Every structure is written in C-alpha cells, then in structure tokens.
Amino acid sequence: MMDEQILKLLKECDSDFLSGEEISRQLDVSRTAIWKRVNSLRAKGYEIEASRRLGYRFIRSPDLLIPLEVKPILKTELLGRRIHWFNRIDSTNSKAYELALLGAEEGEVVIAEMQEGGRGRLGRRWFSPPLKNIYCSVILRPRIPPNQAPLITLVTAVATAEAIERSSGLLPEIKWPNDILLRQRKVAGILSEIHSEMDRINFIILGIGINVNMDEAMFPEEFRYTATSLKIEKGVEISRKELLSCLLEDLENWYKIFLKKGEGQILKAWREKAKIKGKKIKIKSFGEVLVGFCVDVDSDGALILKMEDGRRRRVIAGDLEYIIEKLE
Length: 328
Hints:
Layout: H1 2-12, H2 20-27, H3 31-43, E1 47-51, E2 55-60, H4 67-70, E3 83-86, H5 92-101, E4 109-112, E5 134-140, H6 149-168, E6 173-175, E7 179-182, E8 185-196, E9 201-210, H7 230-234, H8 240-261, H9 264-274, E10 279-285, E11 288-297, E12 303-307, E13 312-315, E14 319-326
Parallel strand pairs: 3-4
Antiparallel strand pairs: 1-2, 4-5, 5-9, 6-7, 7-8, 8-9, 10-11, 10-14, 11-12, 12-13
Helix pairs in contact: 2-3, 6-8, 6-9
C-alpha cells in the first residue's frame, strides 16, 4: 500500500523532485521508511532518481504486469480485485486451479511474466518467453449448470478479440473453439478448465495467452508460420498493462451480460467475430476426421456442421482446420 502511495505522489509531481521530508509528512511515516520503500521500488524495476538536496523524482515504470502497475488503470468491479503476480511460474492455469481449490474468490487473477510449462488445448505447449506477452488465468464461479460451461469459452473469446481491437486497432477473428487469429495466424489462445459436480460448477479457470511484443525471429521454427504477435501485425510495441486492463474489463463486461441475459448476445457477438458460416473445414474430434461446411454454433457453444452428404453433425470439441472453399 505504501509503495502505491509513494508512486502516486511522485507521479503527480511530473518531472519535479519531491523531498523525502514532504513524502514522510504526507504519509505520516519516517524518512528512513520512505528510503527503504524507494529502494524496494527500484529493485522491482522502477526508475527513480534520488538527490540528497532535492529528494526523489519519478522517471519511468518497468514493463511489468505487477499489481502496482495494473491496478491503478483497471476499471473493474470483480476481476483483478486480487492479483497474484509471478515473475516465473510453471503455468498460470495450474496455479489458479490450486488457489481455487484452496478457496480463492471469484475474480482473482494469476499473472506471470514467464511460464516454464505453459499449456494450450490438448496438452500442447504454449511458448511463453519472459516480458513479451500476456499470460493470465482468471478464477470464475458462475452459478450455471455444467453443460453451459463451454459458453464461458465463447464469452472469453469475444472479450479477448474485443480487447485486442480496442488496444491495438487490429481486427482479430475468432477460430472455434478458442483461438484468436490475425491474418489466419494465431495471436491468442484460451484454455478453460472446469471443476464441477453433476449438477453444479465449483469453479472455472480461464487461461488466456496473448502474443504481444514478440518479433518473428523469437518464435520457435514450429510456430513461425502459424503464429503472430500484435507487434508484428501493428508494427509497433503495444502496452501490455493497457492491453491486460482492456482484457479484464471486457471479460467482466461480457461475463455480466451472459449471467444476466443468457447466451443470446454472446452468440451474436461471437458469430460476428468468427464469421464461420459457410466455411469449409476439416476437424479432428475424438479420433474421427470430419469434413463439412460450418452452419453455426448452437446455444451450448457446439459447432454445427453440414457434411458433404447433407447430414448435420454436432461437434462439441475438436481441432479445426479451414479449407479454402465456400458453400454456394
């Protein structure tokens, strides 16, 4: 709390110095305590100039997603009230799942600067280099039946695409069930994990990874032609903390809409951003390979396919690949 107060006072002075005596007077603590907290902030990466005669002057914030940087710009009521930040972690989803089992409240968020065991769908590796991207997991406890859990993934996809558009001006497209694309390359992914009983959901963990400021050469060879980043597409670096705040704000907004009004508006927004109707696809689902044309998603978030023989199939999960052809 004192760190936040010190930063607030220093930032309010713009480029001017603020004496240690004045800071200690306003916060009602000793000048020694101020000196210790300033050194602690410097250790976290804050650039603060010190002068024995003039005091302290704020220069620059670190490019970190620590609560000190995120909370002051976050305009949410639920998501991010408590942020668990890690410089390095195995997986934000694994940590969030552990915290949820221990009773963490809805809206708590786990953020990491780097993941050593980042996971995507189907156990795939999520490449997670340090200080370049967003890796976060959100704990939700919706009072909905378990069969509606897939709709939370659609909520998250809409919010993620909207946050990317709002913070970068780019126009992403959603790929069913949980990828976000730019120029048909993956820029973000969602991994949702549910803990439930027969008739109720205990919690859902929403893992969201966004490639933000990576250059093309940073991607491993296996991802170089299928993945991209906002920096590659935009040509400039994107503020990670502003993108994260947009993400949590948009996710909270769409989550509230879903809980209050049901799936109608969510499905409408998802369809607009996915543009799947009429696209020919190949999908691997539970060991079966299906080829057909996308018709829609239903009220449970399942994909409806029109097969080449005219039959319709409902697909609840799978690995989708577009085929360049349109239904007449």
